[in-house]
Design goal:
Layout: H1 36-44, E1 49-50, H2 53-58, E2 72-74, H3 79-92, E3 96-99, E4 114-117, E5 125-128, E6 133-136, H4 142-150, E7 154-155, H5 168-174, H6 187-190, E8 191-197, E9 203-205, H7 211-218, H8 220-234, H9 237-246, H10 259-262, H11 266-274, E10 283-290, E11 292-293, E12 297-305, H12 308-321, E13 325-329, H13 331-336, E14 355-363, H14 366-381, H15 400-411, H16 413-419, E15 426-433, H17 439-452, E16 458-462, E17 467-474, H18 479-500, H19 511-514, H20 518-537, H21 592-604, H22 610-625, H23 632-636, H24 643-654, H25 657-668, H26 670-691, H27 694-706, E18 737-740, H28 743-747, H29 759-769, E19 774-775, H30 787-792, H31 795-812, E20 820-822, H32 825-834, H33 841-848, E21 852-854, H34 855-863, E22 873-878, H35 882-887, H36 890-900, E23 901-905, H37 919-922, H38 924-938, E24 945-948, H39 951-961, E25 965-967, H40 968-976
Parallel strand pairs: 2-4, 3-4, 18-19, 18-20, 20-21, 22-23, 22-24, 24-25
Antiparallel strand pairs: 1-2, 5-6, 6-10, 7-11, 8-9, 8-10, 12-14, 13-14, 13-16, 15-17, 16-17
Helix pairs in contact: 7-8, 8-11, 8-20, 12-14, 12-17, 17-18, 21-22, 25-31, 29-40, 31-33, 34-36, 36-40, 38-39
């Protein structure tokens, strides 16, 4: 064991715990039992089988109120793996559940036997017919697919609120729709063809002209059975009429029986049945969508009404006017949304009865937009709107930022309301539809039912389509609360069906919590047809049992998860999974959601249990060490949960007092440390030139083994040589700003082979050229943004440097009279925001007087208007860093790059590189995993320049792509330099 390896016990929860009723039992501490583990490893290979109890726990939760522990998790890479898993399950009598993003709200992504991760290796999109169609793999998020389609002026029909995280496979398998899809733009209506694997292992491509012939040869009984059911349904006029009527409103409860009416052949019937089948009929490996026009002329309003019923009554008018979306948010939803960044704070004071409609019109051109705005104005004129708080305008706007803010509040419905629920309670998300003309009556009835059962629920939904969502919170550990929920569900389902002839699931699919009520809605004849369909397609019941069909009347009460209290920063988490696609480590070890899920399981366990011991043993590397600490999870989370901050605190907890003292001493003597580091980098560079990088890699590798991998960086060939010892000479007199070269740019030089000025020289030159000279203080050596200590959880050292840099900056800028320009985005973020909690009260006051400007903002807003671009390169690809996302200056990166290059590309898969200062040298596998997709996209073609604005991230991208990244300000200097320039 390395000398300074931290003890797992340092992360043991200190709180007094009562073992939870749903804790993982001790017998599962060893993980996947034999022979299951060994057989699957032999079948698929060890890297595709996740068997530790920590693996099973982190996959046991999704966005639903349910939790089921799988026996094993497998991660297939291709169709051959899928077929092998299904064949194994058939032969061994086992069950299989497919899981993609895990954003489902009804437990569809959970299984109790073999759980199959079909997200990790299943992403990709191919544009067809100039964007009119797209072939998309099931692990691709809606957001990612639409990013590519937007270049062609197209988008997908389904637009669920979870588009940032939900994947194509889950969207199709649940027929999820969203704000604008309704019944005409959902998957059932816009899927052109599907490729899938049946439970038997048979591959079907519904777009293949020979598909029916091939299927008849491979699966004759299946074909006969489907055609027999079709004939039976069509022979029953009353049933046919009923089926058609059920799909006039949104409905995802049960199987799509209209597939038997819409399809004339077995393959066509299967194409329809697969949509909304929730993984019970097969694995969808590829989807071809018919895409829709992306109408870019948008007019939107957030209109406030005195009551829920008044808002509902206004919906038909906007539908008739042509609104593409009419979204409803009740008072509880609006008030809870203040936890979402950008939402007006005065919403917290809205009366409970207040309800808002978010109304949007989209047009392809100015004339169409003006026509819609006139129609909307006519509707608004007849409404009785209210302005209960000052931020309410009740006006239509074209401002994209304002519109984005409205939608951010709406899409945060589940997470924002869920985050404000009482501590320790489980969240239930219900989803139903009624004929739009009955929406007002349904709202009134729902409010009465909630009050009757003691629930103060939040209500929101797609009002244009008669589709409402509401949230209920209760304590799953209390039998009385579970009984109250059960009673409410009985009454709610009866009300929806009997009074409104509605759909018990409009777009979230049946799932575990509505399966017992399927027959209530559809009646015995139609329900029995669904059971027979399942028997024909999956006669052995291998796929996803109990998720759509379940004869147990109390099935919805089984597996409800408790929510034990954990660290306050993560307590609001509802395990929605929105954070996962942004997380650099989610394909390597754990995601933010999984870090929280694992922590909650520790809290469910009695202290010292075998399960807790195994979880703690894995948590150090899987959760703490491989967290990049970039906090992009905070940006993705609608309520701003910063799991990265929690991991930094855990790093702090693992430090010994001696480690903290050494870190603080390093901060106090950083001037000497900085100089020594520059000398060491120069010496290593010379040694590498003479002997190659091998000896350095060997030496640092041995040191890592002897001391601790999370303390000793590994030498990487991409590490550049040393920076110049002296910074450019500048004058304070006449300076427009103070220029602070970050310590990383004072230690490391530019990319190998770079010809031209260094970054500090470039910033000084281009600022002077624009008539806005900058001054570099003589005493910047020994100062730092404190991120070095902050990212590692060294609180004492962090406090030393945070206060030093603020005191120095205040003096340099003459008490804040000049802006402080910082040339590395992570350092800008550190000085502007991350140092604040560690400042003394006096220094916090000084910090308030500072204006801290990222070099990208300085260049885009202050320099570019005064510069003349003399030459441009043909193309540049950009790497926006996570710090730029936090600072909201990615557009400034693009602006500066567009001044330097004819073509500028930001990869669709761009994300955090996870180099994170030196973390990419501590755990190079983290950066390799985090950058894999972006690197593949970058390397698909050549560019003239590879640009960013953060030296360590540039090194990380050098390693990922094999190309030399450098600061866009260096390219700006070259583009505006008078005279001849040699690249």
């Amino acid at each position: 064991m390395p000398l300074l390896e931290p003890k797992p016990e340092a992360l043991r929860p200190a709180a007094v715990r009562n073992p939870s009723v749903d804790r993982v039992p001790d017998r599962q501490a060893p993980g996947t039992p034999e022979p299951l583990r060994g057989e699957l490893i032999d079948l698929l290979g060890p890297e595709k089988v996740l068997w530790k109890v920590s693996d099973l726990v982190k996959y046991a939760s999704d966005a639903s109120p349910y939790r089921f522990i799988p026996q094993v998790v497998v991660v297939p890479e291709d169709i051959d793996d899928i077929s092998a898993i299904l064949s194994y399950a058939h032969g061994k009598g086992r069950e299989v559940v497919f899981r993609a993003a895990g954003t489902s709200l009804n437990g569809q992504a959970q299984g109790e036997d073999i759980l199959v991760d079909v997200r990790r290796h299943w992403a990709g999109i191919e544009i067809l017919d100039g964007g009119a169609r797209a072939r998309i793999r099931p692990g691709t998020t809606i957001l990612r697919a639409n990013a590519t389609l937007a270049r062609y002026g197209r988008l997908l029909g389904p637009d669920p609120a979870s588009a940032i995280a939900c994947t194509i496979g889950g969207v199709v398998a649940n027929n999820a729709s969203g704000m604008t899809a309704g019944t005409t733009r959902n998957s059932y209506r816009t899927v052109s063809s599907l490729t899938f694997v049946l439970p038997s292992g048979t591959d079907v491509d519904t777009g293949d002209p020979a598909a029916d012939e091939d299927l008849a040869r491979a699966e004759p009984r299946l074909c006969e059975g489907l055609l027999a059911l079709k004939a039976e349904i069509e022979a029953d006029a009353a049933l046919t009429t009923r089926i058609r009527a059920k799909y006039e409103i949104k409905n995802t409860n049960g199987y799509r029986l209209d597939a038997f009416l819409d399809g004339s052949t077995p393959v066509q019937i299967l194409r329809g049945l697969m949509v909304g089948s929730e993984g019970t009929f097969g694995f969808i490996s590829e989807v071809v969508f018919d895409t829709l026009p992306l109408d870019r002329r948008v007019s939107t309003a957030l209109l406030f009404f005195p009551s829920l019923t008044a808002a509902a009554a206004a919906v038909p008018g906007f539908n008739e006017a042509g609104a593409i979306a009419v979204e409803l948010m009740d008072g509880n939803t609006l008030r809870a949304s203040v936890s979402v960044q950008g939402v007006p704070a005065d919403w917290a004071g809205l009366p409970k009865e207040t309800t808002a409609l978010l109304v949007e019109f989209r047009a392809p051109d100015e004339a169409g937009q003006e026509a819609y705005e006139r129609a909307a104005a006519a509707v608004v004129e007849g409404l009785d709107l209210v302005t209960p708080v000052s931020s309410v305008t009740n006006e239509f706007t074209r401002d994209t930022k304002v519109i984005s803010g409205y939608w951010k509040a709406r899409k945060a419905f589940v997470t924002a309301v869920g985050g404000s629920r009482p501590s320790g309670t489980t969240l239930i998300t219900e989803d139903f539809a009624v004929p739009p003309s009955r929406l007002a009556d349904a709202c009134e009835a729902l409010l009465g039912l909630q009050a009757e059962h003691g629930f103060d629920a939040a209500v929101a939904g797609h009002a244009a389509h008669g589709n409402l969502h509401f949230l209920l919170a209760f304590d799953a550990a209390k039998p009385s609360d579970v009984d109250r929920y059960a009673a409410f569900m009985d009454d709610f389902c009866q009300l929806t069906v009997d009074r409104f002839d509605g759909s018990l699931k409009a777009e979230h699919a049946t799932g575990r919590n509505i399966a017992p009520f399927l027959e209530l809605e559809w009646g015995p004849k139609a329900t029995e047809l669904m059971w027979r369909t399942k028997q024909i397609i999956d006669p052995d019941g291998v796929l996803a049992p109990r998720i759509v069909l379940d004869r147990d009347p109390k099935a919805h009460l089984r597996g409800l998860k408790t929510i034990p209290e954990i660290e306050q920063i993560a307590a609001p988490c509802i395990e929605c999974g929105f954070c996962e696609p942004t997380c650099p480590s989610h394909d390597l070890t754990t995601s933010p959601r999984q870090r929280i899920v694992l922590r909650r399981e520790m809290m469910r366990q009695p202290g010292g249990s075998p399960v807790e011991a195994q979880l703690l043993d894995a948590y150090g590397y899987d959760a703490v060490d491989t967290c990049a600490g970039d906090s992009t999870c905070k940006l993705a989370c609608p309520v701003g949960i910063d799991t990265g901050a929690m991991m930094k605190d855990f790093r702090h907890q693992r430090h010994s007092p001696r480690e903290e003292r050494i870190a603080a001493l390093t901060a106090k003597n950083f001037k000497a440390v900085e100089a020594a580091a520059r000398v060491a980098v120069a010496a290593a560079d010379r040694l590498g030139d003479r002997l190659g990088d091998g000896p350095l890699e060997t030496i640092t590798g041995l040191a890592r083994k002897a001391v601790r991998p999370d303390l000793v960086p590994e030498w990487l060939p991409e590490i550049p040589g040393a920076a110049a010892r002296k910074l450019p000479r500048t004058s304070r007199v006449g300076a427009s700003a103070v220029y602070y070269p970050a310590c990383v740019n004072r230690i490391f030089g530019g990319p190998e082979g770079h010809r031209g000025p260094s970054l500090p020289q470039a910033v000084v030159a281009v600022s002077a050229r624009a008539g806005k000279p900058v001054w570099i203080p003589d005493d910047v050596a020994g100062t730092c943004c404190a991120t070095i200590w902050h990212s590692k959880g060294y609180d004492a050292g962090n406090a030393v440097m945070a206060n030093r840099i603020v005191e120095a900056a205040w003096g340099w800028t003459a008490g804040g009279k000049l802006p402080l320009v910082v040339d590395a985005s992570s350092c800008t973020l550190g000085i502007a925001h991350e140092v604040v909690p560690y400042l003394t009260d006096d220094n916090r006051e000084l910090h308030r007087e500072l204006t801290i400007v990222d070099s990208l903002v300085w260049a885009a807003d202050e320099l570019l208007p005064e510069l003349t671009v003399l030459r441009k390169i043909s193309s540049a690809v950009l790497h926006p860093t996570c710090s730029m996302q936090h600072l909201d200056d990615v557009e400034q990166l693009r602006t500066v790059a567009e001044a330097c290059a004819e073509e500028v590309v930001i990869p669709d898969d761009a994300g955090c590189c996870a180099f994170a200062g030196d973390r990419g040298m501590l755990h190079k596998e983290l950066t390799a995993s985090a950058t894999a997709k972006e690197a593949a996209e970058v390397n698909a073609r050549e560019y003239d320049a590879y640009l960013s604005a953060n030296r360590m991230c540039e090194i990380g991208m050098d390693r990922a792509t094999g190309h030399s990244y450098y600061s866009v300000l260096m390219e700006l200097e070259r583009a505006t330099r008078p005279g001849a320039v040699v690249r």
